[in-house]
Design brief:
This protein has 168 residues and is α+β, with helices and mostly antiparallel strands. It is 29% helix and 8% strand. It is built from 4 helices and 4 strands, in the order H-H-E-E-H-E-E-H. The strands form 2 sheets. A two-stranded antiparallel ribbon has the order 1-2. A two-stranded antiparallel ribbon has the order 3-4. The longest helix is centred in the middle third of the chain and has 19 residues, at 63-81. The protein starts with 8 loop residues before the first helix and ends in a 49-residue tail after the last helix.
C-alpha cells in the first residue's frame, strides 16, 4: 500500500507500541491534515483542461516538521482507537454536573492530547508572536542604552548650580 499520510502503521507501532491497521492510520492522517490545513498530498482534476493534477505537500516539508507530524498521526491513531464514537459525537463545550459545569476545550473531542502537543511543535502552527526585550528587563545584557553617551545621568545639583536635565 502506498503511503497516504505522515506515518505508517509500522511508525505507530514503533512510536506508541500499539498495533493498528493501515486504514486507522489513514483516517487519523486525514484528521491531522484537516487540523493543520496542509494535506500530505492531494489530487484534483483541472476543470479547464480536464488534466489530473497532484500536489505532494510532503515534498515541501522539512525534517523537523515531518518528525512531529509523524508523531501527531501516530498518537492520534492510538487515541482514536480508544474513542469509539469519534465520528458521531455532537459538538459540546459544556457538560452540566451536580456542582459546577465541566467545560471542554474546542478541539478536545477531536484531537488527542499528545497529538495536539506534537502539532504545537510544527513550524506553521506555532505562535508568530515576537518578544522584544526592553533594556529594563536585564540591565546587564544591554551594553549601552541609546543616547546614554549623549545624555549621561547626573544627580540633581551636581552641575554647580546650573540647571540640569531636559529643562535647560
Amino acid at each position: 500500500m502506498a503511503q497516504t499520510t505522515w506515518a505508517t502503521s509500522a511508525d505507530v507501532l514503533r512510536i506508541t507500541g500499539v498495533e493498528v491497521s493501515d486504514q486507522q492510520v489513514s483516517i487519523a492522517g486525514f484528521i491531522i491534515d484537516n487540523y493543520t490545513g496542509r494535506p500530505y498530498s492531494m489530487s484534483w482534476t483541472d476543470p479547464k483542461s480536464g488534466q489530473d493534477i497532484e500536489f505532494n505537500w510532503w515534498e515541501k516539508v522539512g525534517a523537523v516538521d515531518w518528525y512531529y507530524l509523524r508523531m501527531a498521526v501516530s498518537y492520534q491513531t492510538v487515541w482514536m482507537t480508544a474513542q469509539p464514537d469519534i465520528m458521531e459525537r455532537i459538538e459540546t463545550t459544556e457538560i452540566p454536573t451536580t456542582r459546577q459545569a465541566l467545560k471542554i476545550e474546542a478541539q478536545a473531542m477531536i484531537i488527542g492530547p499528545i497529538a495536539k502537543k506534537a502539532l504545537g511543535r510544527v513550524s506553521w502552527l506555532r505562535s508568530r508572536a515576537l518578544h522584544v526585550r526592553s533594556p529594563f528587563e536585564d540591565l546587564y545584557a544591554a551594553s549601552v542604552v541609546p543616547f546614554e553617551a549623549d545624555f549621561p545621568w547626573i544627580p540633581v545639583g551636581a552641575w554647580s548650580g546650573y540647571l540640569a536635565g531636559p529643562d535647560f
